[in-house]
Amino acid sequence: MATPSKTPPGADPKQLERTGTVREIGSQAVWSLSSCKPGFGVDQLRDDNLETYWQSDGSQPHLVNIQFRRKTTVKMLCIYADYKSDESYTPSKISVRVGNNFHNLQEVRQLEMVEPSGWIHISLLDAKNSPIRTFMIQVAVLANHQNGRDTHMRQIKIYTPVEESSIGKFPRCTTVDFMMYRTIR
Amino acid sequence: MTVLQEPVQAAVWQALNHYAYMDAVFLAERLYAEVGSEEALYLLATCYFRSGKAYKAYRLLKTHTCSTPQCRYLLAKCCVDLSKLAEGEQVLTGGVLNKQKSQDDIITEFGDSASFTLSLLGHIYCKTDRVAKGSECFQKSLNLNPFLWSPFQSLCHLGEKLDPDQVFRLSSLHIPVAPPPPISPAQNPSHRLDTALMETPQDTLELNRLNLESSNGKLTSDSTVSYIDSSLISPDPCSLLANTVSMGSTGSLLGKPNKPKSGRSLLGGPAALSPLTPSFGILALDPSPGDPGYLQNYSGSLDAQQTAPSKKVRTSTAPLGRQEAGRLGTGRLLVRSPAPPSSVTSPQVLSPTLVAPPNIQPRRSTRLFTSASSTAKENSKKLKMKFPTKIPNRKTKCKAAKTANSNLNESLDILKLDSSMNDSKGLSTPGYQSITLQRAATDMVLYMLRELGRGYQALCCYNCQEAISILSSVPAHHYNTGWVLTHIGRAYFELAEYTQAERVFSEVRRIEAYRVEGMEIYSTTLWHLQKDVALSALSKDLTDMDRLCPQAWCVAGNCFSLQQEHDIAIKFFQRAIQVDPGFAYAYTLLGHEFALTEELDRALACFRNAIRVNNRHYNAWYGLGMIYYKQEKFSLAEIHFKKALSINPQSSVMLCHIGVVQHALKKSDSALETLNRAIGIDPKNPLCKFHRASILFANDKYKAALQELEELKQIVPKESLVYFLIGKVYKKLGQTHLALMNFSWAMDLDPKGANNQIKEAIDKRYLPEDEEPVTEDFLYDSESSMTDADDSQLHTAESDDVL
């Protein structure tokens, strides 16, 4: 079998945010980890800094649990992984599960990464290709490169689609002329 | 003791005048320690307050009894500044619990400063939710002193319909009196300037005139003319009340409105004489060759000063030449120069509030001219004021023609008349002349205030077109100032004409780069226009300039909001609120940010806070309606939108929203009616037409909808939503080709949107051919994917499950 091609990096999620079509909602959720090394925990995972990372400290699978206060529409998950800096700590197989609580999770996506070197975008769409609505998301690292035990994850971002225009159930308008009249600020 | 005070007091006032607060405080403290009188206490407290330490003044005045009106006024002011409103009220009126003084009592008690006291009291009442009493106080304050803008402004904000023509008018109380009777130096020490400052009602006019005439002979060249602001004169005997004989001559000085130049003084502002006011007061309207702007006339020999004006003076003021001190108008200029002690020093009260016989009278508006600069209560003996030379006006006669105002012409006529009269009579009735001149001057000021008041009132009632026309018709030199342009910009903003507003605001920035009031509106304008570069430049500039004003942080917040960085925007808006909890707009903007981040409860709280601060803040009412709309509580939304509309009836955007809500409530007829009204008010609003079309579509009136949309296509040809809706209409009509065509155009125009709705609309079509699957992630992986995959878009894939 041919060497599997490396996973190409996705676009910087910040660019996506700027388009105004998605919004980062990680701040509305409670994050927890299955295990972590002291000083390399949730804060480092959510600090918007690609230099710091989460390092797990237990047995596989390593889990990141994201619990929302209310059922939230989630469109996309972005994970930053870099083989060159993390080598054997780089996750290679990731499973994304959603559900209402810990006992209710169902896998919606599973993906394999080969030597990733940037942002990995994982879209979370249901059967009808619309973003899923859920209380909880669990990101499970099932395997690492070179069969490493622990994993490093540098950053995770979770996105929800921005509500359509403030009035009417229509898609977003595109021109400034239209948007000017859309709302009173 | 009394004698000792005067030099020290004079020194203190001098220090204050020169903003040397440390010196002033030090001396005042010594004086207070020495004398311990209430006057000294007041002086010390004033020094503290002016040096920016209101808390010191507050504590000082609290611990010592203060019974004089000035001390009580200052204490109340400190209380208000420190947000101790109840205490401030208690000081002024005797308490919330005790029997309160009526406003008339206050007027008689505070006398001279009653108008300011009432204004302060009105402010306290408004802040403590007693709006009716507050507006009453403001009205009374304006009655007493039509030159105060802040009560007028507050009344407009409360939504009261005032008639600026009535407000900014001199009543009988305010008629300028003849120059005060000259006080011979011998009398000075005994005179209290306070009384001198009192306005003399008309009945003393005669008396004054006589005095004036008699004093004519007395004043000689040795008296140095000086301007003194009436307030400058200390309550103590210093009063060398000016001999107002010169008033007469100065009257002629008032002359014609001049082209405003450096020597302008507007009502106590540092020197702005507009052509409108033959003499807003003081000095020279025209930078005549000897007239370097009034603050500069310290030097120059007395003679030179005095002769210069006299040359210019049309009337033969030569005899009075030396005594030109009588400048009408704002005697803000406090010109001090040491004069030979031998000369008669009689600081003149330049202000039109000439020294009057010691009647305590209601304040005279003209006096107000001069009061602004305050300070100088000087020991007249020590100070010799030099008479600032300005007299200009003669020259400006020709310029008079510039002002097209009939009012102006009238006053000019009066002036001319006076001048000619003077000429003929040879100063026979200088008093009369000066009175008429003063009158003309104040008329000018009041005229200006009336115009601006009308414009401002129109703006507060959201009659924006009218406001713009009124404000644009003020004379050019007033038009090109920050205040006028800012309000015109705001009027355009309320009309949703953002490009015009932006143009006006950028002009404001160019003229007055230090202006922060109104910049939050400018930032919102830029936000609407999505001009991120300009907005971030503005934000940087303002936050660098003044970190303590809420407007700067609002601008910063808007900047980040435009960049979709809502968390940072929230942080900045919260900072704005911290800096000034009374700034309603900051709450509104914060509410909008929370709404954008889906934290609707916090958004509701913010909007409610904004309404608590300012009941007429229609943006906050709109915000509440919008939140309820998002939560699908349509009837609540409608109520709030209607409330907002009642405050701002000309907003087409608001009407548009109401229309949509009514449609959501299934009241499609009223919805259409509302939208028709909206389009009637503002035909350029594309969203109204769009929503009208969508309502027609929902009601199955396809032809009408299509017609609307075709018109809309002409107005906004690049808007993808329009094509989307057209596509839907055609789909309903069964014309699949046209529908598909429009959907594809819609998708083309909206490459980054990845609109599921459009995709779905196409998906639902049964497409006979080309069902190319499109990978799920292709839309996300790169923004450019859309343009590449145009063809595949047309035939968007259907996922496996669909079929």
From TrEMBL, chain A:
GO CC, any one term: anaphase-promoting complex
Keywords recorded for this protein, A-Z: Cell cycle, Cell division, Mitosis, Ubl conjugation pathway
Where is the DOC domain positioned along the sequence? 1-185
GO BP: anaphase-promoting complex-dependent catabolic process; cell division; protein K11-linked ubiquitination
The record's listing under InterPro entries reads:
APC10/Doc1 (IPR016901), APC_su10/DOC_dom (IPR004939), Galactose-bd-like_sf (IPR008979)
Report the superkingdom from the record.
Answer: Eukaryota
Q: Does the keyword Cell division apply?
A: yes
Q: Which Pfam families match?
A: ANAPC10
This chain's function reads: Component of the anaphase promoting complex/cyclosome (APC/C), a cell cycle-regulated E3 ubiquitin ligase that controls progression through mitosis and the G1 phase of the cell cycle. The APC/C complex acts by mediating ubiquitination and subsequent degradation of target proteins: it mainly mediates the formation of 'Lys-11'-linked polyubiquitin chains and, to a lower extent, the formation of 'Lys-48'- and 'Lys-63'-linked polyubiquitin chains. The APC/C complex catalyzes assembly of branched 'Lys-11'-/'Lys-48'-linked branched ubiquitin chains on target proteins. Component of the anaphase promoting complex/cyclosome (APC/C), a cell cycle-regulated E3 ubiquitin-protein ligase complex that controls progression through mitosis and the G1 phase of the cell cycle.
Subunit structure, as described in the record: The mammalian APC/C is composed at least of 14 distinct subunits ANAPC1, ANAPC2, CDC27/APC3, ANAPC4, ANAPC5, CDC16/APC6, ANAPC7, CDC23/APC8, ANAPC10, ANAPC11, CDC26/APC12, ANAPC13, ANAPC15 and ANAPC16 that assemble into a complex of at least 19 chains with a combined molecular mass of around 1.2 MDa; APC/C interacts with FZR1 and FBXO5. The C-terminus of APC10 binds to CDC27/APC3. Interacts with PIWIL1; interaction only takes place when PIWIL1 binds piRNA. Interacts with FBXO43; the interaction is direct.
Q: Which family does it belong to?
A: Belongs to the APC10 family.
Question: Can you name this protein?
Answer: Anaphase-promoting complex subunit 10
What is the scientific name of the source organism? Gadus morhua
Gene expressing this chain: ANAPC10
Automatic annotation (TrEMBL), chain B:
Q: What's the superkingdom here?
A: Eukaryota
One Pfam family this sequence matches: TPR_1
Q: Which UniProt keywords apply?
A: TPR repeat
Gene Ontology BP terms: anaphase-promoting complex-dependent catabolic process; cell division; metaphase/anaphase transition of mitotic cell cycle; protein ubiquitination
Regions of compositional bias (Polar residues) in chain numbering: 296-309, 342-351, 367-377
Mind naming one GO cellular-component term on file for this protein?
cytoplasm
Q: Where are the TPR repeats?
A: 115-148, 550-583, 584-617, 618-651, 652-685, 720-753
**Which PROSITE patterns does its entry note?**
TPR (PS50005), TPR_REGION (PS50293)
Disordered: annotated segments: 251-270, 293-381, 777-803
The UniProt entry's sequence similarity note says: Belongs to the APC3/CDC27 family.
Database matches in PANTHER family: CELL DIVISION CYCLE 16,23,27, CELL DIVISION CYCLE PROTEIN 27 HOMOLOG
- Which protein is depicted? Cell division cycle protein 27 homolog
What organism is recorded for this protein? Gadus morhua
| Encoding gene (name) | cdc27
